[in-house]
Amino acid sequence: MTINARDELMKYIPIADAIAQTFGKNCEVVLYDLTTSQSSVIYTTNNHVTGIENGHPFNHLLTQVLLSKNLQNDVAANYQIASNGKENVKSTSVLLRNTGGDAIGCLTINYDTEPLFQIQQFLSDIVVKENPLDLKKETEYNNVQEIAKTLIQQIIGESDVEKMDRRKKLEIVASMEEKGVFLIRGALETVADALQVSKVTIYSYLDEIRDRAEGN
């Protein structure tokens, strides 16, 4: 008994369904009968991706698959199509042959990648892009006092404390206050030692700085 092409292609329907169910609603699978140019689409699943329906011709397959230089070993992989108002549809087509070796059909997977681009944009918006925190370096600190010392030294920098006048020391203490250095327990004593002044002097600096802030 001779089996016509369409009957032979129907056995691929479970494969089409399996692919679509595996990759979800954004994955459309289309089965074509290449023995007829008209009404060549014989089965679709998740056809909301491109809007292809049963009975459609295979016109676009001519250039993108059958005549494509990318067709290797009966597979044209990862080409892009725009259909149904969607610009980011990734497609792969496989030629289906009968026992005589004739290409009688084509199974095409169309995947809507637009949601992936949206996720990519979302991740790009929330990921820190500049000055990433060096966690390895942070683990070198054993306690908050060490962190305080590091901050204080960074603020003082290369300045010669012995030659520093009151105005400059007041400016440095103001910068430390702004950065929250004095919220760390023991920081005030450390700052006093670093600036070679008494704790009482640091208190007077802070009072002056806070009075100015309240005045503004």
From TrEMBL:
<feature type="domain" description="Transcriptional regulator DauR-like HTH">
    <location>
        <begin position="149"/>
        <end position="207"/>
    </location>
</feature>
<keyword id="KW-0238">DNA-binding</keyword>
<dbReference type="Pfam" id="PF08348">
    <property type="entry name" value="PAS_6"/>
</dbReference>
<dbReference type="InterPro" id="IPR013559">
    <property type="entry name" value="YheO"/>
</dbReference>
<dbReference type="InterPro" id="IPR039446">
    <property type="entry name" value="DauR-like"/>
</dbReference>
<dbReference type="Pfam" id="PF13309">
    <property type="entry name" value="HTH_22"/>
</dbReference>
<dbReference type="GO" id="GO:0003677">
    <property type="term" value="F:DNA binding"/>
</dbReference>
<protein>
    <submittedName>
        <fullName>DNA-binding protein</fullName>
    </submittedName>
</protein>
<feature type="domain" description="YheO-like">
    <location>
        <begin position="9"/>
        <end position="121"/>
    </location>
</feature>
<dbReference type="InterPro" id="IPR039445">
    <property type="entry name" value="DauR-like_HTH"/>
</dbReference>
